[in-house]
Amino acid sequence: MTIPGQACGCGEEQIPWMLARFGLLGAGALVLGTLVVMLLAGWGLATVVWLVRRRRSDPGGEAADGLRAFDWSDGESGDRHHGG
């Protein structure tokens, strides 16, 4: 016989420890907080990489050109995979 307001004890081993310790809202807040921290860390890392690449780029703009000088007519044919 169970006392009203208490769990029967039949599934307490099945409840994850975080949910049991912090409750539903606490566990949700912890998961969302972790996602926000990971998002901010990613933005921070991307900003650092962008700043480093910007600082290392040539003031003349040659490094910023990237693939602008690339041309498919440099001896490459788009048909080489089709037996051409």
Description:
The chain is mostly helical. It has a domain at 30-60. Helix content is 48%, strand content 0%. It has one helix and no strands. It has one helix spanning 17-56. The protein starts with 16 loop residues before the first helix and ends in a 28-residue tail after the last helix.
How many beta-strand runs? 0
Main β-sheet description: none
Beta-strand portion reads under 5%
Helix and strand composition category: mainly alpha
Which stretches are poorly predicted, pLDDT < 50 over at least 5 residues? none
Helix content: 40-55%
Distance between the ends? 82 Å
- Average pLDDT reading: 75
Shape: elongated
Oligomer: single chain
H/E topology pattern: H
Gyration radius (Cα, Å) is: 29 Å
Count of helical regions: 1
Helix and strand topology:
Layout: H1 17-56
Relevant terms:
84 residues, mainly alpha, 1 helix, 48% helix
Q: What's this, in brief?
A:
The protein has one helix spanning 17-56.
